[in-house]
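Box 3.1 A note on notation
Throughout this textbook, protein chains are presented in two layers. The first layer is the amino acid sequence; the second is a token string describing backbone geometry. Keep the layers aligned when reading.
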Amino acid sequence: MLDAPSPVPHDPAEPDTVPYRWHEHRSFDTWTWSCAVAIAAELRRDLSRRPRVRLLLSGGTTPAPVYRALARAPLDWSRVDVALVDERWLQPEDPDSNAWLVRQHLLRDNAAAARFEALTRPGRSIQESAAFANAHALQPATAAVLGMGEDGHTASLFPDMPDLQRSLASRLASRLAYVVVDAEGCPGARQWSKRISLTPSGLAQAQSRFLLIQGKAKREAFQQALASGDVQRWPVLIGLEGATPLEVHWYP
């Protein structure tokens, strides 16, 4: 595996009390490899003390090159369970599913030995699929990789989503790691309104959390989210909840 490039630390919101660390990278390659090396380091650390570890991944085009780099990490991938942060109500073999993206970009090279858990299953209802995911989520994740839309959504939690309040409330009520959501009317969800999503409770259990973003628009969106503090408007703020700081990796 290539050596990790050194990130350029920069905090756009400054105070040290903010529960995140900002890593700014000078090039696409440094961003890609820095993200992959950081995630691999968390997995390697946990593999040294546990028989199995769990990795949660998001879909989207942004993290795909990071997954391809991560797949080359010299880890004991046979002891890694790979699962999803969220999924559209599509079967795993659908090219528009997050499962398909993870299979194409991560489950190759060294990482081909990993055990993959799709969120949807043939012949199972969406409620049954979510229940199955919650059973597996009893094992806390070593790392969770998040993305963010320019609207501030993360996982399948969208601003003004009809189910958003219930999904956010799960951290205080049922403590479920996954819930079925309806994102109808949310532009960011596009034509896939029916989804399964990780909740704040499920995310907070992860030992480390990574937010991978690119472009000035997403940097500005993240800054606006921090300034607002309104998780209903900026669901990405759920990433700040946890025992360790959210690791934000950004490339212009």
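The first helix runs from residue 28 to 47. The CA atoms of residues 101 and 214 lie 19 Å apart.
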